[in-house]
Amino acid sequence: MIEPILVVVVLLGLIGAGAPIFLALGASGLLGLYMARGSLAFFFAPTSFFGQLNSFELIALPLFILMGNVLGATPVGRNLFHAASLWLQWLRGGLAISTVGASAVFGAVSGVSVAGVAAVGSIAVPQMLERGYSRHLAAGSVASSGALAMLIPPSVPFIIYGAVSGVSVGALFIGGIVPGIALALALSLYIYVRVWLNPHEAPPATEPKPTTGEKVRALGGIWHALLLVFIVLGAIYSGIATPSEAAAFGAAGALFIAGFVFRCLDWTRTREIFISSIKVSGAIMLIIGCAKIFGDYLNLVRVPENVSAALTATDLPGWAILTLIMIALVLLGMLVDAVSLIVVTTPILLPLVTALGYDPLWFGIVLVMNLEIAVVTPPVGLNLYALKGVCPQLKVEEIIRSVVPFVGVQFVLLMIFVLFPELSLWLPGLL
């Protein structure tokens, strides 16, 4: 029993020392395999690494990242916010609610939360501050709604969870629709109630009421991207194409829209997009492969089975165990990035969840909902620093304070989907 503890201590020590997460996972996993099987570890580790990456589903990962990066270089984010603000101008707090709507739609375009925060936040925050919105409402609405990209398909975390767990990526995409819409509505409702109780946080609009023609014309700058997302997801849901095939079409379509519709790509910009996409994809692949080494060691010494047996022996009801798991994941998400959390915790927690009688598809959905909280909580909340990067007029401290009530809304909704699994499973079952 001492060996698994030593391996975990080495893992945490390497992370605490600032080592790259893939190196910490790979080195600690290799150490554990060596202590368990001797020199055979040097055969097991490469087999685990390449076996995990030799997955057709993972082809979708770099292609969806490329699609999101290409569309992120276009004015789509700005156009989305402009259209949403025109359609919701009549509503008190309409700009903040428009931010939630624009972020949700941009999440369907990019699948990457940081890209949504950068694209929407760079436009939304200055406009809200200029029109007298409170700084906390402006920052909190952008940082929290940017996390919707993790849940609304095409979602990069769903692709990673599907590769690790074996659950259908297409089913995960379908399952993320209802929670994604529910979370967007919950954030919008919170903003509406907050502004109703504190009118000084969102002064009424002073601009002339937009005409129907202006509203319709505002949609002209976003229909191309929305049509592309509709085709990509429609091909997956209808069974015409696999997620990997649809991702290839999406990446090609994004390049066409950016190059020939918006005409915002030159050779230098295209090269930067491809290099950035390769770097992000490569980093994620390294983490996934090395996490498999670590996970295989845990399975070899039966850590998941022991954890499952210990928790089920407590005679706690299933919902209580799940609540403890969700709280633990929220705390871990404050310290570990989302990708690492998925690939490390899934092999440990999934056997426990299935032993309690829950669906692996449902667990993937609530896991990603949990990660939405992780990306807006310090010290590893990437959305916080992405917003600071595009809005230097905001301080990191006030951004962190601004997301606290929004995190509360996210956690309440998470627990609703934890306690009522059928809410997230009815649509995949229907389709």
From TrEMBL:
Pfam families: DctM. It is found in: Cell inner membrane. The keyword Iron-sulfur does not apply. PANTHER family: C4-DICARBOXYLATE TRAP TRANSPORTER LARGE PERMEASE PROTEIN DCTM (PTHR33362:SF5), SIALIC ACID TRAP TRANSPORTER PERMEASE PROTEIN SIAT-RELATED (PTHR33362). The complex comprises the extracytoplasmic solute receptor protein and the two transmembrane proteins. Part of the tripartite ATP-independent periplasmic (TRAP) transport system. Belongs to the TRAP transporter large permease family. This is TRAP transporter large permease protein. It comes from Citreimonas salinaria.
